[in-house]
Amino acid sequence: GENVEQHPSTLSVQEGDSAVIKCTYSDSASNYFPWYKQELGKRPQLIIDIRSNVGEKKDQRIAVTLNKTAKHFSLHITETQPEDSAVYFCAASSARQLTFGSGTQLTVLP
Amino acid sequence: GAVVSQHPSRVICKSGTSVKIECRSLDFQATTMFWYRQFPKQSLMLMATSNEGSKATYEQGVEKDKFLINHASLTLSTLTVTSAHPEDSSFYICSATSGTDVYEQYFGPGTRLTVT
């Protein structure tokens, strides 16, 4: 089955700096790669996703890049704000099932 | 649109009892529903996938006789934890996909189960 690895597990940045989280996946059949933000005790919130026919996607301060050859994808958050502090999960989907990465605790220091 | 609800949001039960969690798609018909379990400071782990009117498909290591899933309609799936034990205490989250996009999953708010 699919295996998704996510790094780093924790990330602290100063407000206004950029944050980058990286994921790799194992199943070359995976074709949908969402990123979720989860606050404590809440549901995962989709912040951006990318499909295998696209290499990069941007939505305001958030961007995702996908390298299907290398089987890795990354989340980039620019101009970070304290409200960006949360746990971020990447995921990969093959056969419509999501496999999640282990999560990254992002802390944005004011 | 694409709202998923769960009930209850929190439940405390005694060891050995059973508890049922409901997952509803409020404004769309859910072709497929998923059940996840999330332990503190860990990721979401898929427990099972269910399609309306069919038996659920369980992930390896998930006991189907302990975690009973019923997907009786296109808007409702239930997860029953039978003979609950303290190690079943966790955050249970459901999600659903609609017919318009088979990939994007809409998540419920989760149910915090505590078994004493």
What do you see in this structure?
The complex is a heterodimer of chains A (110) and B (116). With 110 residues, chain A is mainly beta. In chain A, 0% of the residues lie in helices and 59% in strands. Chain A is globular and about 40 Å long. The model of chain A has no long low-confidence stretch (mean pLDDT 95). Chain B is 0% helix and 53% strand. The N and C termini of chain B lie far apart (37 Å). The model of chain B has no long low-confidence stretch (mean pLDDT 94). Chains A and B meet through strand 5 and strand 10 of A and strand 5 and strand 9 of B.
Essential attributes:
heterodimer, A: 110 residues, mainly beta, six-stranded mixed β-sheet, B: 116 residues, four-stranded antiparallel β-sheet, 53% strand, globular
Q: Which helices and strands, and how do they pair?
A:
The complex is a heterodimer of chains A (110) and B (116).
Chain A: E1 4-7, E2 10-14, E3 19-25, E4 32-38, E5 45-51, E6 56-59, E7 62-67, E8 72-77, E9 86-94, E10 97-100, E11 104-109
Parallel strand pairs in A: 2-11
Antiparallel strand pairs in A: 1-3, 3-8, 4-5, 4-9, 6-7, 7-8, 9-10, 9-11
Chain B: E1 4-7, E2 10-13, E3 19-25, E4 30-38, E5 45-51, E6 57-58, E7 67-73, E8 76-81, E9 90-98, E10 106-107, E11 111-115
Cα distance, first to last residue of chain B? 37 Å
Report the order of strands and helices of chain B.
EEEEEEEEEEE
Q: Helix proportion of residues of chain A, in percent?
A: under 10%
Structural class of chain A: mainly beta
Low-confidence regions of chain A: none
Averaged pLDDT of chain A: 95
Largest interface: A-B, 20 and 20 residues
